[in-house]
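Please review the protein record below. Tell me whether the encoded fold seems credible here:
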Amino acid sequence: MACRSGERYYSYMCSTDCETPTECLSGALQALAGERIEGWFGPALLEREAPLVTAANRLAAELARTTRQCEVSGAAEHDGKATMASWLRGHHRLSQGGASRLVRNGRTLDRLPVLAAAASAGAVGAEAVSVLAPVVSDVNLARAEAQGVDVAAIDALLTEVATSSSHADLRQAVGHYLARLDPDGTEPDPTEQRSLSFTRHTDGTVSFHGTLDAVGGEKFQAAVESIQQASRPAGDTRSRAQQAGDALVQLCDNALASGALPILRGHKPQVLVTIDLEDLMDTSPGAGVGAGAGLTGFGGIISAAKARWLACDGNVTRIVIGPEGQPLDVGQTKRLFPPHLRRAIEVRDRHCVFAGCDAPSYWCDVHHVIHWIDGGDTCLDNGALLCERHHTKVHHGFRIERQPDGRWRTWRPDGTEILIGEPFLVSA
């Protein structure tokens, strides 16, 4: 279908009559969404994928260009917003980082016409534009002018890198240019280059986004890598990204357990969970599996099962709540496994006791073999070292048991035992 806007004609496969390019785009996207691609073979799918990537790049460039014109004209004021970033957050639910990047990309394309042409043609994506943004910051443009740098030539050179080399190569080229632009300048304050933001989702999971300076990033990677590359349970088939996430949590566990973190509002930093006693004590099958029973200190929602797992090697405080929600009585906080008992269990077990795991003791919680809420004693015979991964497994159906000879045995939820190093029977 040919669609007209003014004196220009646009030929798209539209599902409805349209009069503007954006209407044509909507019709084309609707037609694409209606295509049945299930069952297509690889070559056909790749032929469809490539032009879609190009189209996404072109659309991102057009969105950035429009955002820039909105910013220049003060369009956000029409809806009572001070900036385009705030308008994008409020009207289209973009994150703060996403809105800022879009505004910044619009400014970048406005100042780098060669890059803008490549982005408009679909040869450069939004990520590449973001990498080039520092080149046209006010500070760096002033430095370039002071040194007689031809920014137009830099635009052409870096656009060539963006369209012909990898993303990593582009980042390196931009970094090299910026370093040469101010070789003897004052070292930037690393604390001003670091940022970290958190987003908590409805299911209690947390996403985060951050930026670190070169040295800070190296420290962060070295700390996570040290844990990730240390001895981990055999047969761990998770992706590297999953292992890195686990290593980051372990790094936090180590820091919290060390007791060396700064005091937070009169208390040492800790993971806080509030849960009704009835939910905590209901260990019937299926109870407390879904999220919603416990509330964490930072507003997360977790299941009763997860709360019981956290309480296994934590401090427990009883608070009696009245009918109108007011606290009536606060009992004394009780440490389930005191330090001297934990040390004894560490000496005995040395590492995680789950079959096939040798995670070191400082990665482990002390687990009540018979849960304390079921009357299990907090004593040496009822304690066992379990790493986070296997502590979770034991609270979800797996079972461990210490034998009279001191060996630990592990059973799956179906009752079968996990045996390590079983001998092969060879028939004569």
Remarks:
- Confidence is low (pLDDT under 50) at residues 1-15, 287-291, 423-428.
- The first helix runs from residue 21 to 34.
- The two ends are 78 Å apart (CA to CA).
- DSSP finds 15 helices and 16 strands in the chain.
